[in-house]
Design brief:
It contains twelve helices and six strands. With 294 residues, the chain is of the alpha+beta class.
């Protein structure tokens, strides 16, 4: 689904800043076992030796400052997480990693996307972990009270351009299959269970087809037009887009009924707005020494 792919692409774009960070493991491993006079030879050219020490020095000259700067930021985020009692488990990172990969359509597409940014899967996991830790810390800090959340909701719903609806969908390959699913829904089948069993949008299928809140411009035009034309709780006829055929169900937002979904929307927006500034503030307040800083 377009909105899922957009979120995954944004995650990868953020990871571009961490490309050189993947070299950090090399620096750490090399620096603790730096070759001496009998330097380890890792390549030869017509008998001329290239040693591990030479490679280490070259990498340090080219990338060392960037790697150390990235490690400093990660350490600052981890320190704030410790103060806030925030943790992220390996299992949670793997779950997020798998969801991102699914949003790209599987292993092949995801590997291609990573290659466009020069990232390995290990580097991307490191980026995910820090992003998840920082997000959890900021979510604690930015939790709205009911009055703030209500004001946010009223402003969001006050204009057609900013109005949100809650949407779920089932995506299939053919119109015939879409009509079959629509008939099952008409006969009383459970939408979420059908989405889990039939939808090829695997990221949302795991959530019963739920795409959360969407606004104008968040999805492809055909999907948007059909979704915003639906009444509260109404299910669409099959809708074709570049991704296949969709069965869409939309809900108009009621503040009390959808308070938690609205809270998620609020926090996602506020964390995104705050993150870069927060990183800068952490650096400004910290006592940092860095002999590689330019």
């Amino acid at each position: 689904m377009a909105s899922e792919n957009n979120r995954a692409t944004m995650a990868l774009a953020v990871a571009v800043t961490l490309v050189v960070a993947g070299l950090g493991g090399y620096f750490v491993g090399s620096s603790t076992q730096r070759p001496g006079a009998d330097a380890e030879v890792i390549a030869t050219v017509n008998g001329d030796r290239i040693t591990r020490a030479e490679v280490h020095d070259k990498l340090m000259a080219y990338y060392g400052a960037g790697v150390v700067d990235d490690m400093i930021l990660t350490r600052l985020v981890d320190q704030e997480a410790a103060k806030a009692g925030v943790t992220v488990t390996d299992a949670e990172v793997e779950e997020k990693f798998a969801a991102t990969k699914a949003a790209y359509g599987g292993d092949l597409n995801f590997a291609w996307a990573l290659s466009q940014y020069g990232l390995t899967e290990a580097q991307f996991r490191d980026m995910l972990r820090r992003d998840m830790v920082a997000t959890r810390v900021l979510r604690q800090q930015l939790q709205p009270d009911d009055a703030t959340l209500r004001a946010y909701f009223d402003e969001m719903q006050s204009s057609d351009e900013t109005r949100k609806i809650k949407v779920r969908h089932i995506l299939v390959e053919t119109e015939e299959k879409a009509n079959e699913i629509r008939a099952q829904l008409n006969a009383g089948a459970d939408f979420a269970e059908l989405a889990k069993a039939e939808s090829k949008d695997t990221a949302s299928a795991a959530q019963g087809g739920d795409l959360g809140l969407i606004g104008k411009g968040d999805t492809v035009a055909e999907f948007e037009a059909a979704a915003f034309a639906l009444g509260d709780g109404e299910i669409s006829a099959p809708v074709q887009s570049q991704y296949g055929w969709h069965i869409i169900q939309a809900y108009h937002l009621d503040f009390e009924r959808e308070k938690e979904a609205i809270r998620e929307q609020y926090l996602n927006e506020k964390v995104s707005e705050r993150l870069g500034t927060w990183y800068s503030e952490l650096r400004e307040k910290a006592q940092i020494t860095n002999s590689l800083a330019g």
